[in-house]
């Protein structure tokens, strides 16, 4: 309900988008903490904990457990973001895009959904997928600035869709369901859920190019 109110009501959304906006460094995107989903999830969890009877929650143990479980994800995401920044500063995405466009010609842009999807599949994180591939997608747009928002959208959607099929998530699901050695069976049935978004995004790019 909190997420619905904070993101669906225009006056409240505009206020939160401009409330205590934090920019880590020059040139970096601004970060409005009161508009972000994790803030409200943490606020709801804290409010629930405070309403519980005194002594029923071991706050120290819960915080330590949460930090221990969350640290690998935080560490990995930061690593991917820093690596993407270094790659961008070194001009690697531009060179890769130029090489790919020279090899594929007019069909180069149609690899955009596949690149975004593979990054999401391998990293299991849309943030990491975008950090790795968004500079390459931007370089593929080249001088066609009108394509840049579309390629950014394709990257974000493809990366998000394929994170659901990442090996680590499938392995966790198989373990929780008690299906030992069942990853092959899961992928045999789940692959259309990854192929369909990629096909639709490729068709959308084709329609955009023809239009």
UniProtKB/TrEMBL annotation:
It is found in: Cell inner membrane; Cell membrane. Its main location: membrane. It comes from the Bacteria. One of its GO terms (molecular function) is lactate transmembrane transporter activity. The chain crosses the membrane at residues 38-62, 69-87, 107-126, 147-170, 190-208. It is a multi-pass membrane protein. The keyword Cell membrane applies. Keywords: Cell inner membrane, Cell membrane, Membrane, Transmembrane, Transmembrane helix, Transport. InterPro entries: Lactate_perm (IPR003804). Coiled coil: none annotated. GO terms for cellular component: plasma membrane. Uptake of L-lactate across the membrane. Can also transport D-lactate and glycolate. Belongs to the lactate permease family. This is L-lactate permease.
């Amino acid at each position: 309900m909190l997420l619905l109110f904070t993101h669906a009501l225009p006056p409240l959304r505009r206020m939160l988008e401009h409330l205590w906006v934090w920019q880590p460094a020059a040139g970096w995107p601004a970060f409005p903490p009161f508009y972000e989903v994790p803030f409200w999830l943490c606020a709801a969890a804290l409010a629930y904990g405070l309403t519980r009877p005194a002594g029923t929650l071991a706050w120290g143990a819960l915080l330590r457990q949460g930090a221990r479980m969350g640290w690998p994800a935080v560490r990995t995401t930061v690593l991917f973001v820093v690596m993407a920044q270094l790659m961008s500063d070194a001009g690697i995405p531009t060179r890769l895009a130029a090489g790919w466009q020279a090899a594929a010609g007019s069909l180069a842009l149609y690899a955009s959904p596949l690149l975004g999807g593979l990054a999401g599949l391998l990293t299991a994180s849309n943030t990491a997928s975008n950090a790795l591939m968004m500079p390459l997608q931007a370089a593929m747009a080249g001088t066609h600035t009108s394509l840049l928002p579309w390629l950014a959208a394709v990257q974000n959607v493809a990366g998000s869709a394929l994170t659901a099929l990442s090996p680590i998530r499938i392995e966790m699901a198989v373990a929780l369901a008690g299906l030992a050695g069942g990853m092959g069976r899961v992928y045999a049935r789940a692959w259309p859920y990854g192929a369909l978004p990629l096909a639709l995004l490729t068709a959308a790019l084709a329609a955009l190019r023809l239009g």
